């Protein structure tokens, strides 16, 4: 590279003492080698004119700084200068930016020379690039010479003025080309987006909306032709012109009359369309018509926050923007990444919409000006506004430098390990070594600091003024933000009970000690996370209750302050679930498991078998059965909090949830049975052995949060004990287990259901093995045979339980299979269940248990196939629905595609049923209709974005397909 550079210097004649200062300036260019190569090419292009430029560079330090900075920063502008070498004169001497009026004159003079749009493209392009080059030269010059730094706001304004002048020239040429000597129709070109706000990028689409005066067909047709050709000319000569922000987007008319625009916004416009209008500005064309357009629509803009769907639409917009960026490049995305430009712009615009109806000082388009206005009005802290402005301008500066390099639209930082590209960017952005870091190190440090600051300020921007106003009101100080303004802001952020929310905030921050100080630091971020949950109001109330309960535990606030992941996960749980907060109130230590351990989330580190053993052992330390069962229930409560938290946070699959819930239930049954046996046994020992047989979902290892424990008790007399005495004692034990576990407590109820025993509620609570055998051999009904398919020993004497299972195998898996009459009876019973068991008023399409394609449909279908084929296929000798489905598929009893449909439906319905309990805090099987509750269920079920509508559509689609399989398979 050195030899190439030396050759270039020799060709230029820059190897004399007179050029030392010039070479020093060249070395300060962002990329000196690129600048030198461009200078060499420029000398060749100038030929005989090179001496004039060479001489000017020796004398004019300003020219040196501007020329070297441009050539060392922008390959595209270097190519432009080489293609138009005389344009270097624009950078010589005293260079100032023309006013908007002067720009219009410059472009109008060029436009007046052309009546043909095609012929005008090339000269207009050269003119536009030359004006961009002048601006870039003044913007970049401080990197080479000690020229004044051009404020970011001035750069954005000039680029917007330049765009206006260019659009005006394009419209002038097209008007003459299309209309000739005739008067063109009145047409206003309204600038939108960054151009409308006069904060344009070097390379950006220019968003516009076209407004016509006359709504007649002929006039609109002509105006549409003019608008279309103007867009083509401007896009060919200057920049992409985008009219997609017009009513109905790209599907709508390109040009509408003023009355048509007004009618659309009154009836059909979405919230984002009003948000876009905040930056609308008449740019060129009929300026009076453009002003009337804004006057007609502006009142609608500032009342948009009162729309019924304002909050969900705003939240959906925010999520969609975040999803546009792949996670792998999010940290390099200046615009759409976390802590990026869009975060700032979105936050500022939302605050403007919320307070703008009551405060006209917020009716400004520029992001920087809006931040100042928000700070002046007390809606944003002054220091926060200043810091956010500094961060925003820093990110926009980097964006400008990246775009200037090739005049391409980009917002993506170079790869973080690309030192050469980052070093160029640092120098182009005026960064110099600071004593600790070189320019590259300074850039890396600044990127980390600014990204973190924007992410932190994004939350503070919304919530710090709220907390300050609450604190000021509590202490009797002058309030920066009024109570009404605070309520409006909370409502816009998703809090429906804004007045109650302010009360909670006052309570949380009202303490004058450490707790109040820490809460005031935490709450801006916590409230921001809560606003993304389905029920921020409930989440804030839950947080207040939990904080009050933990007032004497220093670790609680310290953990939330120091462990960001814990705090964020806790807010998600508190704002989604009514089930888990109640558990955490009694077992808050589970919150510490929200942290990440060395092998992943601590919530998932527990060994279910080890937990079960610990639970049983803990209960065994107490001789009093009440205390023993209380200890078991306490550990169960802690486990429920852990499992449900992991479930809500997407850390545990639905099958893992069911298995772990089953393991906990089994352990509690074992602990309770052991405690009651100890308490009721004479000194000689228990009169009988007892086994607990799990039925239904307990036997299948598929319990949900709202499931009862379906069980049967079987006993065998010990040596020397009469059977009748053994049975009486066993009944006493079983009744105490059932009643003690069913006693209301701080944990969710433990209902032990024994209705599946022989003869149901009329039958004996406990039978001996031989009694069961006699009953099933002589009296078993088809539904009882079906119920036995899920029987599995779960607690008590395991040897006795195993004997029971071997005994019933002859009933549930008879050697020749069940009879055709039994199959027919099972179908009849299912039809009766479908007709009679669905609760009054329930929707059969969305009842997760008994609805169409729901759990009962899938499980009855699987069980019917087991009854028919288990005598031939040993793999069907199991109690799990999913395992049985896998065996059915392996045996090719039904098509693999049908297996997948049934499996998908079972998982979907189980997940939905569990989510219902997590959200509502009590067992229920009916999915709610559209609204906040359904969104919460969708979130709890792990549906992307918590979109209840999409979640419900998917549920209906999955269960509908499964129902078709059920009709085909179950119905024969």
How many domain modules?
5
The CATH superfamily of the largest domain is Beta Polymerase, domain 2
- Helix content percent band: 55-70%
**Gross geometry:** elongated
What is the typical, i.e. mean, pLDDT? Answer: 91
What structural category characterises the helix and strand content?
Answer: mainly alpha
The main sheet comes to: 5 strands, mixed
CATH architecture of the largest domain: 2-Layer Sandwich
What can you tell me about this protein's structure?
This protein is mainly α and 972 residues long. The protein folds into 5 domains: 2-311, Beta Polymerase, domain 2; 312-479, Four Helix Bundle (Hemerythrin (Met), subunit A) (Up-down Bundle); 495-605, no CATH class; 628-812, Beta Polymerase, domain 2, CATH 3.30.460; 820-970, Up-down Bundle (Four Helix Bundle (Hemerythrin (Met), subunit A)), CATH 1.20.120. The protein contains 41 helices and 12 strands. The strands form 3 sheets. Strands 1, 2, 3, 4 and 5 form a 5-stranded mixed beta sheet that branches. Strand 2 (206-212), helix 11 and strand 3 form a beta-alpha-beta unit. Helix 16 (341-355) crosses helix 17, helix 20 crosses helix 22 and helix 29 packs antiparallel against helix 30. It is elongated, with a radius of gyration of 37 Å. It starts with a helix and ends with a helix. Residues 474-479 have low confidence and may be disordered. Its cofactor is Mg(2+). It catalyses: [glutamine synthetase]-O(4)-(5'-adenylyl)-L-tyrosine + phosphate = [glutamine synthetase]-L-tyrosine + ADP; [glutamine synthetase]-L-tyrosine + ATP = [glutamine synthetase]-O(4)-(5'-adenylyl)-L-tyrosine + diphosphate. One of its GO terms (biological process) is regulation of glutamine family amino acid metabolic process.
